Amino acid sequence: MPAINPRVLRRSIAALAALPLLTLAACGYGSESRTDDTAKVAAGAKKTDGLDSVKIGYFPNLTHGTALVGRERGLFQKELGATKADYATFNAGPSEIEALNSGSIDIGWIGPSPAINGYTKSDGKSLKIIGGSASGGVKLVVDPKKITSLKDVKGKKIATPQLGNTQDVAFLNWVAEQGWKVDPQSGKGDVTVVRSDNKVTPDAFKTGSIDGAWVPEPTASKLVAEGGKVLLDESSLWPGNKFVITNIIVRQAFLKEHPKAVEAVLRASVEANKWINANPEQAKQAANKQLADDSGKALPAAVLDPAWKSVSFTDDPLAASLDTEAAHAVKAGLLAKPDLKGIYDLTILNKVLKAEGGRPVDAAGLGTS
């Protein structure tokens, strides 16, 4: 069995005991937090909302492709004018939420579970989800020599990224639907759930320490490159094959004080998604270029191509799926039933979409009244 990061596990369990809420990790690959910006400001550009900078956070991860492409193409800087687009990358949801709460970032791309946790832990005062970004990109990849069908998963060791993170909750819910029993805290039961950082999961799979993993891209495609087989694509479990994997969040104080800056970032996000969907091959390369800048290493084509193909980019936050994911966490015993009313404020996004000739998106009854 691969080593589990004790600091991450202690943090997860401590948060569960204190809230009782999920410690909700990020949904993917990442590098240490850093900030920089090399994009040039257009001549004659003016500051947005009088701000010197807007601090934007995301993960160097393909499911955060909107942010990767938007940054690489200079879209955020273009929309912000003379206000500098400052960036910070994160490995995990808790650290990004902490940065948001402290004011170290203003706006961030993040998974649904950290957003739920951050909102609930603050009694609905810390953040708002202001837009969607990506759907899909999560798979159950297994060793085909050990597992040839879904029923063969019983009795095996399956990795998830972290106790209580988005994929951990999804896998525990799937296990329960098979009629199998697993203790959510220890991961022991009819299936052994191994909480393993996405960075080390491919090596654990290669050595046989785990039999498979329920993981996001590009980790899933890394496992396939090591001889794994996709046994299940999580998208197949959702209505219309769509579920939220990445949202855009903002500090509530920043949203209230600087709506024009928020609008500028959302315009860039909508533009990025539009370009991604119109130019998938170019977008894939742009995302990989930014990923290489952020993490120091580009993804090889054998990993990049299938990983990028499995993620879809959308401005719709797919709010109903977030509510369902929260219900799955409650059912698994990892989350006290949360009050998510007001977690969304899609007013500015819908304004941007209307200006672009697009359709408004819905908060599934969880919007700001």
Feature tags:
single chain; 369 residues; alpha/beta; D-Maltodextrin-Binding Protein, domain 2; 7-stranded mixed β-sheet; 14 helices; 12 strands; 40% helix; cell membrane; membrane
Helices and strands in order:
Blueprint: H1 6-18, E1 35-36, E2 53-58, H2 65-72, H3 75-80, E3 84-89, H4 93-102, E4 107-110, H5 112-121, E5 127-136, E6 138-142, E7 157-160, H6 166-177, E8 192-195, H7 201-207, E9 212-216, H8 219-225, E10 229-233, E11 244-251, H9 252-257, H10 259-278, H11 280-295, H12 301-309, E12 311-313, H13 319-332, H14 347-355
Parallel strand pairs: 2-3, 2-4, 7-8, 7-9
Antiparallel strand pairs: 1-3, 4-11, 5-11, 5-12, 6-9, 6-10
Helix pairs in contact: 2-10, 2-11, 6-13, 8-12, 10-11, 10-14
